[in-house]
Amino acid sequence: MKWEQLWLNYNKTTNYIDKEYFANIYQMTQGDIVNNAVKELKMAAMEMFGISITVEKSIGEKQGIILQLNNDDSLGEDGYQIEFEGSKLVLSAPTQKGILYGVFHIIRQAKQGEPLRNIHKKNIPNNKYRMINHWDDFGGNIERGYSGKSFFFGNREIMVNERTKDYARLMASIGINQISINNVNVREGASWLVTKKYLPKVKEIADIFEGYGIKLFLSINYASPIDVGGLDTADPLDDKVINWWQEAAKEIYEYIPNFGGFLVKADSEGRPGPFSYNRDHAQGANMLAKALEPFGGVVIWRCFVYNCRQDWRDTKTDRARAAYDNFATIDGFFASNVILQVKNGPVDFQVREPVSPLFGAMKSTNQILEVQIAQEYTGQQIDLCYLVPMWKEVLDFRTHCKEKLDTVADVVAGRTFGHVKCGMAAVTNTGDDSNWSGHDLAAANLYGYGRLAWNTSLSSEEIAREWISMTYNLDKMHEDTLLEILMGSWATYENYTSPLGIGWMVNISHHYGPNVEGYEYDVWGTYHRANHLAIGVDRTSKGTGMTQQYYPSNTRLYDNIDTCPQELLLFFHRIPYNHKLQSGKTLLQHIYDTHFKGVEEVEEMIKKWETLNEVICPVVYERVKVRFDRQLENSKNWRDVINTYFYRKTLIKDEKGRHIYE
Ligand code: GCV
Question: Which residues contact 586 (CB under 8 A, 6 or more apart)?
């Protein structure tokens, strides 16, 4: 199957002021990564300017780009510096990786038509870990995948080909430096990936990744000592188990010396874990950490641990409390090469959630923020939902764990508590579709995640604009149109789906389309408890107490119905339909209005897209158009299901007299 090059499609650029720099490369350091960096420059120079680059190993007279190592430790492992010296642009870094990132920066600058002299001198990523998680199954399907099948696995075989390389290039170009290739739900024989049955082939992927500065991780099955090793236990304190993992780690590093480590989903949604042996998660994680430690590996341990066999009649257990309840009390007990991976919200990647109270709560534990690029609950890459604004809100959230440097961005960058193993991870939206992400515009989320993980102070708009100009050749007016489409899309999606942070009104299992009571009487702990008078779960100090998991000023903010941000009102409070919001509207009228508005906004988006008909290539234009048509149908369905549901519950009519089905 053919695949596209996304933002690395270096189409012709005319009149670029600094193109002469691309004529000569002075490559002062050799190695796989820097050689790949030079290949990128060659490709870009040829495709953008028709220039065939000359590469020399010593610095000559002609205008050009110098690539060299430096000793500037302040740049860290991945940072770089770009300076001008006479007719030369000097790109230097302490590592080859830094040079690779700098090269992609130069190409980005040129592709956007920006003069090279505007490049900032030093560029150091905010986050040390900028990770991608694949939920690719060994059989080739992708859990929550909406863009085809896996390009790593098919039929329990590992695939390594040109696409693997193009993928590594794409990821490196946006600064990704760690990738876990298999699903955290380790099944279909994927437990065996850590054994010599598959390691030679995993190594082939790891080698390609390494050439682009990326470390490979594997998701592991906590019960592997039983399922693979034939032991009778996976108890982390059992010597046989400890030994089994130590031997497994040794073998992995014999094949892949640069192996990153393990990603672990334990005691979650049916996955095995230390709870089965009455051990806590620190004991569970530390055992693996010890096995990896001699080789420099890390354990990334997910905090998505909750009771998924709840009784809907039980109003005491609150799933939103679970991650904090399970982990905050064991802060300080984790080994230094364990990193806890925390989902952005306390529940599960809904279109609107508060920030997880675990951020800022664990002062002595490395933390990674996990977001979901795959649009499981946000339209499944059929509906458009540009997610960078959501991630920005999460990163900018002030935890109040300290007076200063207390945002989530500070915590996961290590600025708050001085953690060194931390950063961001994201569940990817890629598959083997020719455009990688199903919806062409969903590639903005993939691109945006990488750029944001590198530099959390970039704005959503800057990132969107950059992605547009890297991907399409549009004039300013059309670029603005596409920007507007992207920038409004999260709010639009939120408008026509579940209101004010209540979440979950989706069809069960596959999670697309409305089903208001789909999860209501089920076991997953995701209840809205609507009756004819009110809706919502009281999570305040008077209710489940979940608000008390935040630092006091946030507890107060959320506890008080008058100060609680409106968009989270139904997450934290149980509210009667006639409650007046700050806008002066009743809750019910707000629900009706946003749902009518959401559909109108989709219609607007489509009109805007249609103005791009002549300027976007026909294949892409049509692909997106087809998805927009489906989105319109979906939004109408949501509007009508939600409005009808609440009308039937309350028998209160829409003030504006619009049509609501009875
Ligand atoms: C990989 C949600 C998804 C699951 C996913 C899980 C997780 O529950 O629906 O498909 O499993 O999150 O993050 O582990």
Answer: 577, 578, 579, 580
